[in-house]
Each structure stands twice: as structure tokens, then as C-alpha cells.
């Protein structure tokens, strides 16, 4: 049965324990702060700080498989504010764009439903990067291959949960059977709606064939940086290929017309007719 | 819904756009050559021979470009065999995988045609190749000309489908028109390459030039119609190819220098009678330049 994660953003505190646990378990290096001097400033300034709330990575990358987003919103008079946190990662889509695009079967789905990159097979063609409708999968110049969250492939195949879920102090991230997690998500959604969070929604039941890592958001998914209707690129493949083939046929017909002799003869005759 | 946070693959223009371009010129030339061979056009046999002389050497360059852009170049053979079980592998939902196999088949067919013209012209003296030729000459030329031009078209067009089946904003918004555009550009630049070769070598009849230029003209008209449709379909997502550096390359290089000026020169030529050699050469060079600018601007603007 498919394993996955349910991320309840309503109880996330933005502590980033999941980011740390992910890096520790998977042995991914951290990005050190890079400082440089700026005119008129007596002290060194870090140029790789995002400057966006408490966000320290800005995006998912080959070395950041988890990313906690900090969403600060104010009304016009700045008398009211809200602060959302959302821990983002690979969603392990059931119709995964990266897996569909991989030309060498480096990206595979395991028996537990997670999408996994076999590092010894990947050739670094980078075609999976633009094929992910979430911009998750990333290329590493160091290894020359693509990297992303594995859903802790080694842990989950040995009876453990994911490192991020294990480290999460508020159980905002929970790991388990997707079917069970959906029940939990539905119950939590009903609870939130009953206390007045009318915009609360579950993200990931239908997107990209269903996401094995899905979310509970308190507002529109766009607020949390997730696309509203992500399109798995390969679903357009047939139409794209068919129209290209149709053009090829049209060009072939044009070629037949241009290279046939009759047309030329008529022209020559027309020329000869001229006085 | 188009999400602006989709990652760019950072493909280098000097590898990937050059591959799109050279593969297109080769496939376009091969298609013209095989079409003339299929219809037994003896008067235009020279065009067909030059097409075969150009197609194979050009396609030989492309694997080098493709492999050089890989993160792990020495693993390029994984494209043909899955390392887990050493069984030949193709992912039918990946244009990149299917295209790799098509490129392999096309290279093989263009090699056979290339050896064929070499033997016909008495230029082949290498005994091994001569023996191989004696073996495969029994297969009718037309069979591999048909297979070759089918896969040639595949090589010319799949690169556009490959860009369209991604989630990058420009490439997603222009779906499904990059594939057709690359096909039209491939035959147009293929014809121009043959014209340029004939003009430089001072071979070929006036009739051959006229036929090729007429075909090139039709291909360019198809191309310009596709560009107009593409810009309408893409709407505001087309901004990267209409502004900035890639706007200059696309509008100035492809549309103006690569299509409008050659069309004007051709139109002027038909009005004033036969155009001089220099005009023919300039037209061909402009078409070839426009094709390259099309590949570079669409590839790079999609990664901005």
C-alpha cells in the first residue's frame, strides 16, 4: 500500500526541525552563509540570506529537500496580520511528471508508492527539471545528477517513518498509509471548518493523479506557493505529437507540389509565351 | 494554470540549440533527397546526391553535442540500455527517450544513403565499406530512404515536442506549436543548405535551384503562419521571445533576417527573372542564420 505524508499547515510552528532532520538523515550538506562587504557598511553582509521572513533556503534544491515557507500577510493599514508556515517537499505524485520524462528509468516508483531517483542510473540530462509541475526536482553540479526527496526510501523500507515526520514536534507532518492519512485529513478539515476556517482546504486529492504527500491549507493554495491546477506535462504529449505529425504531412505535400515537373513546365511555357 | 516557479534545465545553447539546429538541417536535407529519389526524378538527381552528402556528416556531430551537455557524459549509453537488467529501454512517455532511438535509426539510414552516393560517384575506396555496401545494396534504396525520412522528420520535430511537454511557462504556453515550427524550419534550412552547397561548388542546374527555392519559399510561408499562431496562442507568456536579447534574436534574426528578407529576395528574383549567384547565396545564408536564431531564442527564452 502507498505510504505518504499529510502536512497539516494549521499546526506548523515554522521551527524547521524537519529541514534539519532531513539534512541529517540523508547526509545533505548545509549551505553556509556567504558574507561580502558592502560600501557604507562597516560590517560584512551575508548575500545568500533570503530577506524573506524566517525563510532560509527560499526554494527546494538539490541540497534542500525540505523547505519551510513563511508567509507574512498584512492588511492595508497594517493593523491586522497573519503568519502562515508550510513545510514543502516532493509530493510523490501518482502521475509524476519527472518519472514520465526520465529517459533512462533512473526515476522509479517503489512498492511503497514513493518516487525515487537511482543515483547510479541518472545521466544528468536535466529533462526532469522542467517536467515537474511543482519545480521540486533539482540538478546538482557536484554529482552531475538530479536530486529530490526520496520519502526516506531507506527508512520506510525498514519499518520507520520519514525523518521529517519523526522530528516534527507538533505532528504537523504525519507519515503513514495514504488511505489512513486521508481519513485524518478529512476529520481535521471538518473540525477547522466547524470553528470558522471556511477557506480551509485539502490540497492533493486530485492534483497530478493524487499526491502521496498532501496538505491542509487555511487559504487558497496559491498563498502557500502551490499551483492551483498543476498540469502533468505528458498529458499534453499526444496532442503535441499529433499536430507535429500533421505539419510534417503538410510539409511533405508542399514538397511534392514544389518538386513535381508539371508546375515547372507550365511556367516555362508561360515564359516562352511572352514576346 | 502556469506556475512561474518551474525549474529551468539550464541547457546550454551551444550544445542543445546547436543540436536542434544541426539535426534539423540534416533531417530537412535528407527528406528532400529521399523524396526526389522516391519519385525517380532524374533531372534533380544532383539535389538528391548533395542532400545525402550533407545529411550524414551533419548528424555525426550531434551526439557529441548531446553527450557534452549531460551531467554524467560517460553514462550516455543508459539511454539505450537500462542498467538494472541490460535490456534495451525506451520510455514512450518521454520525447527525449523516443527521440534518442529515432536519432539512432535516422543516423543509420543516412549512413546507408551516404555510402550509396559515395559508391555511385566512385569516391569510396575503403575495402571494408565497399564489402558492406555490396551486402546492403541488395536492399532497394527506396526502403531506407522512406524509413530515413520518417525518422528524419521525427528527429526534426521531436525536439519541439520535447520543449512543449514541459511545465516551463513559455514552452507550456506555446504548446503544441514548437514541434510544427521546428519541422517547417528544418525543411526550409535543409533546402537552404543544399542550395548553398550547390552555389559554392558551382554545380547544379538552374532548374534545381528554382525547385529548391520554390520549396523553401513554401516552407517559410508555413513557418511564418506557425509563428503568428504561436504568438497568438501564447499571449502574454510570449514576452520572453519578444523583448530583450531573445526578442532581438527572434524578431530580428528569425522573423526579419531568416524569413521576411529571404521571401522578399525570392519575390524580387521571380519578378526580375533569374537572380544572380550572389543573391542565391545570400538568401541561403540568411535562411540558415534564421533557423539557428529560432532554436537559440526559443530554447534560451524558455529558460529565463
Written description of the protein model:
- The complex is a heterodimer of chains A (275) and B (304).
- With 275 residues, chain A is α+β, with helices and mostly antiparallel strands.
- Chain A folds into two domains: 9-171, Alpha-Beta Plaits (2-Layer Sandwich); 241-273.
- In chain A, 29% of the residues lie in helices and 19% in strands.
- Chain A has eight helices and twelve strands.
- Chain A has helices at 17-26, 97-101, 128-131, 153-156, 163-167, 178-194, 237-259, 261-273, and strands at residues 3-8, 35-36, 45-46, 67-74, 81-88, 107-109, 115-117, 138-140, 145-147, 173-177, 201-203, 213-217.
- Chain A has a four-stranded mixed sheet.
- In chain A, strand 8 (138-140) and strand 9 form a beta hairpin.
- The longest helix of chain A is centred in the C-terminal third of the chain and has 23 residues, at 237-259.
- In chain A, 40% of the residues are buried.
- The longest helix of chain B is centred in the last third of the chain and has 29 residues, at 206-234.
- Chain B is flat.
- Chain B has a domain at 13-216: Formate dehydrogenase/DMSO reductase domain (Formate dehydrogenase/DMSO reductase fold).
- The model of chain B has no long low-confidence stretch (mean pLDDT 91).
- In chain B, helix 2 (45-68) packs across helix 3.
- Chain B has helices spanning 13-38, 45-68, 95-120, 127-136, 141-164, 169-173, 178-201, 206-234, 239-242, 244-272, 277-301.
- Chain B is mainly alpha-helical and 304 residues long.
- In chain B, 74% of the residues lie in helices and 0% in strands.
Amino acid at each position: 500500500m502507498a505510504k505518504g505524508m499529510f502536512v497539516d499547515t494549521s499546526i506548523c510552528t515554522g521551527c524547521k526541525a524537519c529541514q534539519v532532520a532531513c539534512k541529517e538523515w540523508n547526509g545533505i550538506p548545509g549551505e553556509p552563509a556567504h558574507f561580502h562587504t558592502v560600501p557604507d557598511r562597516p560590517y560584512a553582509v551575508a548575500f545568500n540570506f533570503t530577506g524573506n521572513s524566517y525563510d532560509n533556503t527560499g526554494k527546494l534544491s538539490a541540497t534542500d529537500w525540505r523547505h519551510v515557507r513563511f508567509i507574512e500577510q498584512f492588511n492595508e493599514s497594517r493593523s491586522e496580520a497573519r503568519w502562515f508556515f508550510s513545510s514543502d517537499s516532493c509530493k510523490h505524485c501518482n502521475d509524476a511528471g519527472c518519472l514520465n520524462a526520465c529517459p533512462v528509468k533512473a526515476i522509479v516508483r517503489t512498492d511503497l508508492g514513493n518516487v525515487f531517483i537511482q543515483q547510479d542510473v541518472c545521466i544528468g540530462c536535466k529533462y526532469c527539471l522542467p517536467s515537474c509541475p511543482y519545480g521540486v526536482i533539482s540538478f546538482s553540479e557536484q554529482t552531475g545528477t538530479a536530486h529530490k526527496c526520496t520519502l526516506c526510501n531507506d527508512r520506510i523500507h525498514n519499518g520507520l517513518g520519514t525523518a521529517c515526520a519523526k522530528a516534527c514536534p507538533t505532528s504537523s507532518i504525519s507519515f503513514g498509509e495514504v488511505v489512513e492519512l486521508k481519513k485524518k485529513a478529512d476529520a481535521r478539515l471538518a473540525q477547522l471548518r466547524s470553528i470558522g476556517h471556511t477557506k480551509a482546504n485539502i490540497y492533493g486529492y486530485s492534483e497530478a493523479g493524487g499526491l502521496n504527500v498532501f496538505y491542509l491549507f487555511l487559504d487558497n493554495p496559491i498563498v502557500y506557493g502551490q499551483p492551483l491546477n498543476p498540469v502533468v506535462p505528458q498529458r499534453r504529449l499526444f496532442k503535441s505529437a499529433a499536430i507535429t505529425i500533421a505539419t510534417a504531412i503538410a510539409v511533405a505535400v508542399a514538397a511534392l507540389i514544389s518538386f513535381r515537373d508539371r508546375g515547372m513546365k507550365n511556367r516555362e511555357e508561360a515564359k516562352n509565351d511572352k514576346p | 494554470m502556469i506556475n512561474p516557479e518551474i525549474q529551468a534545465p539550464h541547457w546550454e545553447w551551444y550544445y542543445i540549440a546547436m543540436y536542434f539546429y544541426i539535426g534539423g538541417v540534416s533531417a530537412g536535407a535528407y527528406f528532400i533527397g529521399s523524396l526526389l529519389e522516391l519519385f525517380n526524378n532524374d533531372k534533380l538527381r544532383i539535389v538528391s546526391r548533395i542532400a545525402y552528402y550533407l545529411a550524414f556528416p551533419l548528424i555525426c556531430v550531434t551526439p557529441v553535442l548531446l553527450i557534452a551537455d549531460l551531467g554524467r557524459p560517460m553514462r550516455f549509453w543508459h539511454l539505450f540500455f537500462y542498467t538494472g537488467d541490460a535490456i534495451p529501454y525506451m520510455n514512450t512517455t518521454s520525447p527525449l527517450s523516443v527521440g534518442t532511438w529515432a536519432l539512432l535509426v535516422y543516423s543509420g539510414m543516412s549512413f546507408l544513403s551516404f555510402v550509396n552516393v559515395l559508391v555511385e560517384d566512385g569516391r569510396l575506396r575503403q575495402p571494408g565499406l565497399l564489402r558492406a555496401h555490396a551486402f546492403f545494396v541488395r536492399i532497394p534504396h527506396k526502403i531506407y530512404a522512406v524509413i530515413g525520412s520518417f525518422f528524419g522528420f521525427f528527429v526534426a520535430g521531436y525536439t519541439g515536442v520535447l520543449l512543449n511537454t514541459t511545465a516551463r511557462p513559455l514552452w507550456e504556453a506555446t504548446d503544441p506549436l514548437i514541434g510544427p515550427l521546428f519541422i517547417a524550419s528544418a525543411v526550409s534550412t535543409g533546402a537552404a543548405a543544399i542550395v548553398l552547397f550547390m552555389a559554392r561548388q558551382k554545380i547544379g542546374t538552374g532548374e534545381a535551384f528554382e525547385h529548391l527555392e520554390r520549396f523553401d519559399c513554401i516552407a517559410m510561408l508555413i513557418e511564418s503562419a506557425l509563428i503568428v499562431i504561436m504568438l497568438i496562442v501564447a499571449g502574454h507568456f510570449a514576452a520572453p521571445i519578444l523583448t530583450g536579447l531573445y526578442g532581438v534574436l527572434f524578431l530580428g534574426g528569425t522573423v526579419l533576417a531568416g524569413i521576411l528578407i529571404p521571401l522578399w529576395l525570392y519575390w524580387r528574383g521571380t519578378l526580375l527573372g533569374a537572380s544572380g549567384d550572389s543573391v542565391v547565396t545570400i538568401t541561403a545564408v540568411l535562411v540558415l542564420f534564421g533557423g539557428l536564431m529560432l532554436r537559440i531564442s526559443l530554447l534560451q527564452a524558455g529558460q529565463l
